[in-house]
Automatic annotation (TrEMBL):
It is an enzyme of class 1 (oxidoreductase). It comes from Mycobacterium innocens. This is Acyl-CoA dehydrogenase FadE17. It holds the Pfam family Acyl-CoA_dh_N. Residues 6-120 form the Acyl-CoA dehydrogenase/oxidase N-terminal domain. It comes from the Bacteria.
Length: 383
């Protein structure tokens, strides 16, 4: 690993800290989808105008052209300053934009990247289907090439923020005779196209961020295909590499802040007098430090590659388990009784319930372990 902070990095950190201190939103984000979208986009735009949008994105598309180390510094300071959740900007910023940077045409980059950064476009991800989640190569949504268009029919599910989105990373089967990862195509789908129906799905934390998306003869210009027709699997692997790798950087850095706040709270409540609580918190702090070391190693290796490798899967497994343990410990230490989402512990309960998603979203922990076994340890394939 080669990661050290230069004098310029330290100066950047001070600049970020000051900017965040002056600009972090103080208003509440509404749960109404239209208001939430406006709120998320306004905050994204403010970061962009402040010179902190797309820190590691190329300057010709509105980014700052800085290193991933600077991006990491931004996330660390953002977490310390209590910056809000990225909300519906998640897909565009964390993996839609990065996929276009790595695999898109000049025209696709020019058309979408500045708009994503400026908070003018919301993206969502249309990969999972009712019969194909972990087994992504089993997708059945069809894209038929007709003239210079793809005509799409089928269904996606668990599409976060589809009801707020303008564009989608859509993976479809364009060769009807193909099997598994052959004959798939990754395309940019305009979510306002005729033939798209979006149905929100409520999750147990009370939010309606998931959706089912239905496609009925949806016409997409072939110019929107990223990579080649039939070459979508490799583009999708790039997307997942970003999602599981650099896309999780912010969440990883946030976890240390959550834990330090919990330790302070436990101290106030006298909980550290119980040796088992002190040991539990000590173990969690050690694991948070291990997560930080792994994140630094990923930044160091991602700086030398266009697309993050399987190290992202190792970090994701570790992060997902740790997030669940920290939010469970919070429930125990603060002594939350029951799951009343409207009561005084609403925030703790929401975070605890949401932590269940961490071992599923972006690919389950079991699937990440398969990837680690095959691609890091060189073990035989599981299927
Ligand atoms: C918060 C969140 C956000 C999400 N957002 C999106 C989104 O925006 N777009 C999108 O396309 N999808 C999204 N998803 C869906 C997510 O990608 C899938 O839920 C995930 O890939 C698992 O697929 P599945 O739900 O079909 O479960 P299944 O694949 O049916 O898995 C069920 C169980 O079987 C296990 N399993 C399956 N295969 C194997 C195997 N080979 N070896 C060992 N165990 C196995 C799994 O680990 C799991 O425990 C989101 C999910 C969450 C939780």
């Amino acid at each position: 690993m080669d990661l050290s902070f230069t004098d310029e990095d330290h100066a950047f950190r001070r600049e970020v800290r000051e900017w965040l201190c002056a600009n972090i939103p103080t208003t509440e984000r509404s749960t109404d989808p239209a208001d939430a979208r406006r709120w998320d986009m306004a905050w994204q735009r403010k970061q962009f105008e402040g010179g902190f949008g797309g820190i590691a994105w190329p300057t010709e598309y509105g980014g700052q052209g800085l290193t991933l180390v600077r991006q990491l510094i931004w996330f660390e300071e953002y977490a310390k300053a209590g910056g809000p959740d990225i909300g519906c900007a998640f897909v565009g910023i964390n993996h839609g934009g990065p996929t276009l940077i790595a695999r898109g045409s000049q025209e696709q980059k020019r058309r979408h990247l500045p708009q994503i950064l400026a908070g003018e476009e919301v993206w969502c991800q249309g990969f999972s289907e009712p019969g194909a989640g972990s087994d992504l190569a089993g997708i059945a949504t069809k894209g038929r090439v007709v003239g210079d268009e793809l005509v799409v029919n089928g269904q996606k599910i668990w599409t976060s923020f589809a009801h707020m989105a303008d564009f989608q990373e859509l993976l479809v089967r364009t060769d009807p005779d193909s099997r598994r990862h052959h004959g798939l195509t990754w395309t940019i789908c305009d979510m306002h196209s005729p033939g798209i129906t979006v149905r929100p799905i409520a999750s147990m934390d009370g939010l309606e961020e998931f959706c089912g998306v239905f496609y009925d003869d949806v016409r997409i210009p072939l110019d929107n295909v990223v990579g080649t027709i039939g070459g979508g699997w490799s583009v999708a692997m790039s997307t997942l590499g970003f999602e599981r790798g650099t896309g999780f950087m912010k969440l990883q850095t946030e976890l240390s802040v959550v834990l330090e706040e919990l330790i302070a709270r436990a101290t106030d409540l006298g909980g550290l007098a119980d040796p088992s609580v002190a040991v539990q918190l000590g173990d969690l702090r050690a694991d948070v430090l291990a997560l930080r070391a792994m994140t630094y190693a990923m930044v160091s290796s991602a700086a030398r590659a266009d697309v993050p490798g399987p190290l992202g899967s190792m970090i994701k497994v570790f992060y997902a388990d740790l997030a669940q343990r920290i939010h469970r410990a919070q429930m125990d230490i603060v002594d939350v009784q029951g799951l009343d989402r409207g009561g005084p512990f609403a925030a703790e309960i929401r975070h605890y319930l949401y932590s269940y998603a961490s071992t599923i979203g972006g690919g389950t922990s079991e699937v990440q372990r398969d990837i680690i076994g095959e691609r890091v340890l060189g073990l035989p394939r599981n299927r």
